[in-house]
Amino acid sequence: MLDLIGPPHPDLAEEIEDICSQTTSWKGIICRLWPYAKYIEAVVTGSMSQYVPALKYYSDEKLPLVCPMYASSECYFGVNVNPLCEPSEVSFTLMPNMGYFEFIRWGKTGQLFDGFLEEERRGRGASA
């Protein structure tokens, strides 16, 4: 694992501890820990919108919250054409070429179409 993440960095750990111990509030801690950060990329819609106030608090509202993609655990569905807008104003353009979508056909009987079994139910199935 050390080959992957590298050796411990005691100087960096001490710097982080110093920054965190110098404050009586976590407000703006993101900007103190990462002073060169330009924005926070996060999901700010749906069930994740409950975290927007916390992200604003921890960044002291100095960093924009950027939500560039509309996604699920399976794939991306679309893009936010105005990623720097306020979280409450986010809207997405769906891009059908960004993911694979499988559309399962329904059989004439109202059941999921499963090829051979559907034909067998209609009486045209296997012959002896």
From TrEMBL:
<protein>
    <submittedName>
        <fullName>Indole-3-acetic acid-amido synthetase GH3.9</fullName>
    </submittedName>
</protein>
<dbReference type="Pfam" id="PF03321">
    <property type="entry name" value="GH3"/>
</dbReference>
<dbReference type="GO" id="GO:0016881">
    <property type="term" value="F:acid-amino acid ligase activity"/>
</dbReference>
<dbReference type="InterPro" id="IPR004993">
    <property type="entry name" value="GH3"/>
</dbReference>
<dbReference type="GO" id="GO:0005737">
    <property type="term" value="C:cytoplasm"/>
</dbReference>
